[in-house]
Amino acid sequence: MKKWVGILLFVFSFSYAQNDTIKSIGVVAAERMNVVYRGVANPITISVSNCKSFTASAPGLTKISEGYYRLTPGVGLEVNVILTIVQFDGSVLTEKHPFIIKNIPKPIALFNGRNCRDCIVKVQRSEFKDAIISVDTGVEFNLNFDVKQFSVYIPNQKAIVIFGNKFDSIHRKLTRLKSGTEILISDIRYGPDCDSCDRTSAASIRIKVIDDIIPFFKTKKFLNDSLQNIKTQRKLELKEKKK
Questions:
Q1: Is pTM, for the whole model, over 0.85?
Q2: What does the pLDDT read at residue 19?
Q3: More confident residue, 174 or 107
Q4: How far apart are the first and last CA of the chain?
Q5: Which of 85, 170, 216, 223 lies at 20 to 30 Å from 241 by C-alpha?
Q6: Partners of 232 in the β-ladder
Q7: Can you tell me the distance from the alpha carbon of 104 to that of 147, in angstroms, rounded to the nearest whole number?
Q8: Across the chain, how many H-helices and E-strands are there?
């Protein structure tokens, strides 16, 4: 008799479905999807159909509510989720679902969501006022890596340590920098506490300060051209009246 056991792993905002046909030991079909990250609570949904009851166990597995779990793996390269399934006839089946354990990658720092490798991010002076420094691991997993502190390096000046993730205390100073000045955002500290996360500083951000880009309709040239057109139009109207 065949029974179906579905174990769904939700990591990085995707829904990963693993459907196992039970003969003696289940087979995981979606092998690429079975990844969990060390030191953080990975959301998992477990369901078993056509059975009297079941239990799930694994190192670091915690039940949140019916069918919903959190798996926080520790050491090792693999963790097995064991399902003990009681069938309606009283017989018991045991299923093993292996998951690969990976470390959270070292994040890169972002200025208003922007950064690039081996290049410079161009930033208009006015952007510093409400800018936010954040970090990104490169994977879609909501770990809330809020930036707690970072340093700003301005040429020929001492490093400025900022607590938080904004430039509130120095944005006026930055807006007075000459166009073309290059600054460095580094020594970035972030949370949350994570046993496996790379606690070295996130990759720095190289920034080049540039003048604000003013819309053409706000430029002096636009205003001067508009005034000139008005004067020309008036002259033409006066000529028409004299005829």
A1: no
A2: 35
A3: 174
A4: 104
A5: 223
A6: none
A7: 16
A8: 2, 16
